[in-house]
Amino acid sequence: xxxxxxxxxxxxxxxxxxxxxxxxxxxxxxxxxxxxxxxxxxxxxxxxxxxxxxxxxxxxxxxxxxxxxxxxxxxxxxxxxxxxxxxxxxxxxxxxxxxxxxxxxxxxxxxxxxxxxxxxxxxxxxxxxxxxxxxxxxxxxxxxxxxxxxxxxx
Length: 154
Fold this sequence. Notes:
This protein is an alpha/beta fold. Helices cover 27% and strands 25% of the residues.
């Protein structure tokens, strides 16, 4: 059996402050990423320039600039529809992922359609705390092809 392919989908809006750190953490994943799709929702800061800089260096990265502001939900919906990989890992623009995040979620998802992971909140690792009850976009990996939805929690 072959390993499932993974697309990381990130939506951005005026995220220049944290964007480089999150992109670097995605690119440092121990599990191979097939697609990195980033859809910008008409940022007015340097977000788009940062994305284009990364896109020029990362062959599997695709940056899409919306022609008008779609808002958070529709931006993520339309961005996820662009993915062609078996699994979609959803990323917030201001997250920083541990290097084995995708690997652990791919292992945990099994025959489930959705996998949720707890995350840390804090400015520094020394003072961060685990947040497991709050759902956020960057906590999920989703299978594109199975129905109905069942979930796992690693």
